[in-house]
Known about the structure:
- This protein has one domain (3-242): Rossmann fold, CATH 3.40.50.
- The chain contains nine helices and ten strands.
- The protein has helices spanning 3-20, 56-73, 87-98, 114-121, 151-166, 187-193, 204-212, 218-229, 237-251; strands at residues 24-26, 35-36, 42-43, 45-47, 79-82, 102-105, 130-131, 139-147, 173-182, 197-203.
- The mean pLDDT is 93.
Amino acid sequence: MGWKERKQELGRELLKRFYENGLLRTWLRDQPDGWELVSGIWSPFYIQARLVPSHPGLMEFIGKAMAELLREEAPDVNRVVGLAAAGVPIAVAAGMSAGLPVCYTRKLPGVRSLEDLARVSRNYGEHSLVEGIFAPGDRIALVDDVVARFTSKVVGARQVEMELAHRGLTDARVVAVAVLIDREQGTREAAEALGLRLLSLLRLRSEGLGFLREVADPREAEVISAYLENDTAFQSPEVREDLAREARARRG
């Protein structure tokens, strides 16, 4: 089996486990009002990877799968950095499986943009923005659960760059971002614009929707598919209210 087929197999199993364990949550099954993402956009589904460590079998699977992803698509990476908070346990699991050292970013309250990061970092004193050991010449992959609009990954990359500069490691750099799931909402283009490789076990729109139809309610798959094609249409309060009414009616 080649890597392309192997990755599809891993992606299918990942999505199945997330849905069956309630980590891929939908407005219809779990929360009628949906979710507002870190990027500020509303979504009819949410991937709750912060609960992954509560499922040991899933955690082990993810560690091994991410190690394969890094080995196959970023063999130059010699250190991983987990992005707080959901990316930290994923990075630890991947690092242990791949034999790579792990660092992690500090959670900075109120930081959602580069402007926020610049403001907060001025008052951060001698505290580290990233915990862990770096070395000259490091090639680093940021690790997180999901990528939607790439906003938080830009902030994470800059946070690591600032820490490397503070430590005088001018030849170490971030080269990749590795996630479990790419929601495919302009993420790959955003990564390329920054000179970063985006690695994912599952591309939700082009691959995951087919896998989702194997396990989810047909209405869930229908709405999520439409949302990923045009999320702007779902930002209307009227559309969101209609979906919420539908979910509540289903519940009786």
